[in-house]
Input
Amino acid sequence: MSKLGEQIRANKSSTRTRIEVAEWGDGEPLVLYAGELLCGEFNKLQRKHPDFLNNQTIEALVDLIIMKAETDQGDSAFDLDDKPILMRQPLTTRKNTKKRSVFVRDVRAGCSLKQNHRRD
Output
């Protein structure tokens, strides 16, 4: 590997975004994490959903959730068997008269390459 490649490897980010989903918790919000979207992961998503950048369908976003959502231990939170359940979730909820985004938007934001991330 080149010297530059080694340098890039050594500086690999382990940033994860913490996401609380009150609607999925049992008394307290369910806490999940999402790491940054890696080039290889984006490539995999793009192969399944070719126009993902211009047409982010709900199915593509659910696939992104399944790909990126993690437990606090860093294990995958969901697998493909969870897809039908995730596909039946509401896009938004109302609480205290304010619209709140659900996990779909939060994971998308957590995977943004330009967002400032909090290290957990």
Notes: Residues 58-68 form the longest helix (11 residues). Helices lie at 3-10, 39-48, 58-68, 83-87, 103-110. The beta strands are 16-21, 30-35, 69-70, 92-95, 98-101. Residues 42 and 104 are 16 Å apart (CA to CA).
